[in-house]
Amino acid sequence: MSDHLVTSWPVLTSYDSDHLRRIALPLGGIGTGTISLGGRGDLRDWEVMNRPAKGYTPINTFFALYARSANGEAVTRALEGPIDVADYEGPFGCTVPNHGLPRFAHCTFHTAYPFGQVHLSDEAMPLEVRLQAFNPLIPGDADASGIPVAVLRYVLKNSTAETVTASICGNVPNLADAGGEQVNTLRESGDARGIFMTVENGDTGAEQYGSMAFAALAEDVTRRRTWSDRTAWGGALLDFWDDFSVDGKLDDRELVGQKNPLSSVAAMVEVPPYEERAITFLIAWHFPNRITWTPSAEKVEATTPAEPHKNSDCIGNYYTTQYTDAWDVIAQVASTLPALEAQTLRFVRSFCDSDLPTVVKEAALYNLSTLRTQTCFRTADGYFYVWEGCGDTVGSCHGSCTHVWNYEQATAFLFGDLAKRMREIEFAHATCDNGLMCFRVNLPLARATDWTYAAADGQMGCLMKLYRDWQLSGDDAMLRRLWPHARKTLEFCWIPNGWDGDQDGVMEGCQHNTMDVEYFGPNGQMSGWYLGALRASEEMARYLGEIEFAARCRSLFTQGSQWVDEHLFNGEYYEQQVRPPMDKDNIAPSLIVGMGTGNLAEPEFQLGAACLVDQLVGQCLAHICGLGYLLDAAHVRTTLQSIMRHNFRTLRGHFNYLRTFALQDESALLMSTYPRGDRPVSPFPYSNEIMTGFEYTAAVHMLYEGMHDDALTVITAIRQRYDGRKRSPFDEAECGHHYGRAMMSWGAVLALTGFHFSAVDITITFAAKEGRCFWSNGNAWGSCTQRNDAEGIAISIQVLYGNLVLQHIKISGFGSHSTASSQTIVTGEIFNCLVKLEQVGVANDS
User: Fold this and answer.
1) Staple partner for 267: which of 218, 397, 475, 573, CB 3.0–4.6 Å?
2) How many whole angstroms separate alpha carbon 431 and alpha carbon 571?
3) What percent of the chain has pLDDT over 70?
4) Cis (ω within 30 of 0) for the bond into 444?
């Protein structure tokens, strides 16, 4: 309702008028698509119809404010800030949508994702405006975090001595376009008054088939079902502006067959002197026909317009199974919005109030937006799938690619059920009988194993993630169900001419990997993944009573770890020994995707003597999983120091022959350098590039090793590049927008807090650090406060969502507290204990 006012939202980052141009905060739910809030208060990138749509802003979509003081003239402005001078020039004038509208003179942007606030003011306007925009984001509740709606609340502040009559109007197009007649209908439900947008007699199997809805939660509302048919020479916009700017009310117009007819909803309110009033708008969508990323030639037409296509390529959307249509979304959200907002605020405030560096909180929180974009989706059966990223109009690199999504840590620790469903896809559906895991899963699931290639890092990392997700959830049923497949994926390493065909604990074979090439010969990057998989498999096998297999994993791990330290560590970092296979007969089938294999006697795209930013990725994940050191700890720390020394630099003067994600006076960690010379003529393709997911991985690992200053230098450099002026703070790109690997940024939260949770051992662990931290295990979350006491460390754990079952509390390197039996702490409860000082150690000894 108009009187629902949240006066204070948390703010983590503020952007001044010089840093607004690139800001685009995605508003939408997990797997639903989004509409983005621009830095000046505009709505851009309408990506709601099952695919990306960067740059798509439908014509005449904007919000406007009419304001009239008791003794003054009426003033009307678009609810947007000034247009950046960089957009002034085009072949027909300014290139920004709605460029001709009068707008506010001053604008700033403030955010703590998913909350975005735009502050607007103008000397000619008697009201100041604060736009509060968000979508519910509640860790542990994927459904509440997966609502196809954008919430826009306009807070009007009257700083004058006179009452101001105000009206806010929004214009939203009917995008449900499937070749039929687009229909806009007036609707009301409870406090919601708006317009329901559908298509009749259209192609019910089309991606664009569905519905939209637009409503104000207010009492004094006028509506237009469409704009005037005076479309020539801007006549429709002129007609709207003339109508609204007279009295802040709308006269309806009849539908006359316009394409994507605009719905307009205006809500009026009186703002008393020196007070605030708020009006909330909801934009919802419902497009059920998601088509698979690898379509077949098959398409069977519907027999009647009302019958959906009998098309095996239509995999559907989970969110559309939760709502009848877009108006159902409006009705449900309108009645539950205060609770949804309160839960989201509880999460964001708790996270922002933690004693972490601001750049760490920013990197972790803002990259969560990727889960809401078209990078991610849930099919009708509830499974969670991901592209690597998004192109402007299509997804980028299909198949929930294992080697890319090995890196991100946000899903498992915030939405554990989604992560577990990814493990089920990988092991139960994408793994062949011989243990080959297809590193890109085709859809529908009947075609899951059509991509018949294996990635060494992808397959090994999935074993580590299975261990991580089992520990976080304590889901023994999941482990027992997936373990037979998981064991096969490890045994696949040992097939003749495979990754470790001689079974010595070292990967020497053809290793396709996340650099999109094949490595030939042992190297630190793939060795770390393999050693981590051996350790994870050892632990899982031992728990399940497979003692002999566990012992075999341990033996291979010990042998391989020693060999890598003795033969690949050059005193500064780990190199690759290039071992040409000479002939395809020496390579097991399905290991060659084809990059760099033209001349197997002298293969291209190898690492060689590179100081690779990612050479210790397996060790980083081992720390996150609590698996201990995979390699000599001193060598590990020396390697990270070498990466910082050789690879971190300011880029002016840097030569890069491929994609550029950082340049000129910006600083970054290069993918690789060759400090000792001996660079291959054709090194791996991305050797001169910069990509944030790899930078975060190295920085997170530095945090685990106590290199805090270096780690924060790297993370700060990343966030300075995504500053709103040059790039959007909510779109870290790699191979596409909103790239999944960048969600490794959540790992910095884990490293700095020392957080581990085992539902198997019923143990929670933190680093010894006075102050307050945020914790989450994928199913529950809350805060932990530590205070030094004469006898030890006083711990206070509060559960803010879910249930937390505890028996042991550990402070890394210092001591532990155990209860007589496990205790369940539910939402709102606080558990207090004292961890006595038993020994002196280091926080990263896990």
Assistant:
1) 218
2) 39
3) 96
4) yes
pLDDT at 200 over 50: yes
Give me the long-range contacts of 293-299 (CB less than 8 A, separation at least 24): 293/387, 293/395, 293/398, 293/399, 293/442, 293/443, 294/398, 294/399, 294/442, 294/443, 294/447, 294/450, 296/447
C-alpha 408/C-alpha 427 separation (Å) is 18
Cα–Cα separations (whole angstroms), residue 595 to 441, 507, 592, 617, 752: 20, 18, 8, 22, 38
Confidence at 147, pLDDT banded by 50, 70, 90 = very high
* 472 close to 412: Cβ distance less than 8 angstroms: yes
Look up residue 494 and give its DSSP letter: G
pLDDT at 2: 38
Contact predicate 132/153, CB 8 Å: yes
CA distance 699 to 82: 37
CA 788 from centre of chain: 36
CA distances 726 to 21, 80, 247, 733, Å, are 8, 20, 40, 13
Residue carrying the six token digits 């006076």: 665
The two structure tokens encoding residue 782? 């809350």
Nearest-angstrom CA–CA distance, 209 and 163: 45
Average pLDDT over residues 138-167: 97
Is pLDDT larger for residue 597 or for residue 30? 30
Helix (H) or strand (E) holding 502: none
- CB atoms near residue 555 (< 10 Å): 14
Residues 6+ apart with CB under 8 A from 820: none
CA distance 100 to 78: 10
Q: Where are the beta strands (DSSP E) in 361-488?
A: 376-378, 384-386, 389-390, 395-396
What is the per-residue pLDDT for 760? 98
Return d(Cα 206, Cα 204) in angstroms, integer: 6
For residues 807 and 68, what is the distance between their CA atoms, to the nearest angstrom? Answer: 63
CA distances from 446 to 50, 70, 292, 442, 449 (A): 21, 68, 12, 8, 8
pLDDT value at residue 843? 40
Contact 580, 587 (CB under 8 A): no
State how far the Cα of 636 lies from the Cα of 613, in Å rounded to an integer: 13
Cβ 35 vs Cβ 46: under 8 Å: yes
Judged against a pLDDT cut of 80, whether residue 839 lies above it is answered with no
Please tell me the distance from the alpha carbon of residue 289 to that of residue 377, in angstroms, as a whole number: 12
Name every residue whose Cβ is closer than 8 Å to that of residue 21 and which is 6 or more positions away in sequence: 39, 84, 86, 87, 724, 725
Distance between CA atoms of residues 791 and 225, nearest Å: 70
* Angle CA 94–171–84, to nearest 5: 25
Cis peptide before 272 (omega within 30 of 0): no
Under 8 Å between Cβ of 534 and 490: yes
Q: Residue 271 and residue 82: Cα distance in Å, rounded?
A: 25
Q: pLDDT band at residue 392, thresholds of 50, 70 and 90?
A: very high
Q: If phi over 0 gives left and psi between -120 and 50 gives alpha, with beta otherwise, what is residue 497?
A: left
In single-letter form, the type of residue at position 222 comes to: T
Q: Tell me if 611 sits within 8 A of 536, measured CB to CB.
A: no
Burial of residue 346, with CB atoms counted within 10 A of its CB: 0-12 exposed, 13-18 middle, 19 or more buried: middle
Residues 534-571: pLDDT tens digits?
Answer: 999 999 999 999 999 999 999 999 999 999 999 999 99
Give dist(CA 816, CA 764) in Å, integer.
10
301 pLDDT above the threshold of 90: no
Question: Any bridge partners for residue 151, and if so which?
Answer: 134, 282
**What is this structure's pTM?**
0.96
